[in-house]
Design brief:
By secondary structure, the chain is of the alpha/beta class. It contains eleven helices and eight strands. Helix 2 packs antiparallel against helix 6.
Length: 308
């Protein structure tokens, strides 16, 4: 049996659905599968970094404790319109649950890369060296929520715009077997639904955005009298990102197929519904359990022992 084959884990983008990566990683570990190469895009980069830095338990504990009010506290409206996420709070979150500012990728326990996008050229950027926090942040800088990040003379934004499930990166870094996690498999066509929150929550943020648009553009917003209200600004951003990433994911996976795709069923979890971690994590675990026969067949066929 060849025990030298390297397993790569490609963790895809998907905003709040990304908490399922935690359940997937833990359930794979229960099966004795501990990838030596971890590549992630957006939220996949964040969870992957926590895993290779030894902080996955800490991140899970935080995620399971998040409330709707906590999510609202991460949002910040300012007249510069560079993004809606409070960057100071987000930085504190990364330091407390992912890595410190001093941690560098070269010192991590496994091979790791975060995928980002060069805003000017549209090229894919692989972050494999330097600050863990900066790599994660650059990979997660979703336009509309985060400002672009300046890194090595480039303006970087969310890697999901070019490579939502980074199978190709795992292969390039030496993976013989790649297990991919696609969070975008069933999201297009999802019906919009109103987020039920108090006025100090996301609903209040959307309201404030509308007020700012009216104030700074002097343009009236379309407000139909009938019951068919248009999607909120955040819903429209989320749907646009979902459509883009679904189409790119299909194309990339067809051209660069992994050895196995795990696709948790998470279509009802919205862009900023971070408070639904319990559901997402448990679905991640269930997704792996549903695929156990295929996983065992894959490893047996490759002649690979389960312990990596």
């Amino acid at each position: 049996m060849n025990t030298h084959l390297k397993i790569g884990l490609a963790l895809g983008s998907g905003s709040s659905r990304g908490w399922s990566h935690i359940g997937i990683i833990k359930e794979l570990s229960n099966l004795g599968i501990k990838p030596g190469i971890v590549c992630g895009t957006s939220v996949g980069a964040m969870v992957g970094a926590a895993y290779v830095a030894g902080n996955i338990e800490k991140l899970e504990s935080w995620a399971r404790s998040v409330t709707k009010f906590d999510v609202a506290r991460f949002l910040d409206i300012n007249t510069s319109f560079t993004g809606f996420v409070n960057t100071e709070r987000f930085h504190d979150f990364l330091n407390e649950n992912i890595a410190s500012d001093e941690d560098v990728i070269e010192d991590l326990s496994k091979v790791y890369a975060a995928i980002s996008t060069d805003l000017e050229s549209g090229k894919e950027v692989w972050l494999q060296r330097g600050s863990v926090v900066q790599a994660v942040w650059s990979s997660m800088a979703l336009p509309g929520l985060f400002p672009a990040i300046r890194h090595n003379n480039q303006w970087l934004v969310d890697g999901g715009l070019v490579n939502p499930v980074p199978v190709s990166v795992c292969r390039a870094l030496g993976a013989d077997i790649v297990i991919a996690v696609n969070l975008n498999g069933d999201i297009v066509g999802k019906r919009f639904h109103k987020t039920v929150m108090k006025k100090n929550g996301i609903e209040a943020v959307s309201e404030k955005i509308s007020e700012l648009v009216k104030e700074y553009t002097n343009l009236p917003l379309f407000e139909p009298d009938n019951i068919e209200q248009p999607p909120s600004l955040l819903d429209a951003i989320a749907a646009s990102v979902n459509i883009t990433q679904d189409r790119i994911t299909r194309s990339r996976l067809a051209g660069e197929p992994p050895d196995m795709v795990l696709s948790p069923k998470l279509s009802d979890i919205g862009l900023l519904e971070l408070y639904r971690a319990d559901e997402a994590i448990e679905e991640g675990k269930k997704c792996v359990k549903r695929m156990i026969p295929e996983i065992e067949h894959l490893l047996d066929r490759a002649g690979h022992g389960k312990s990596v």
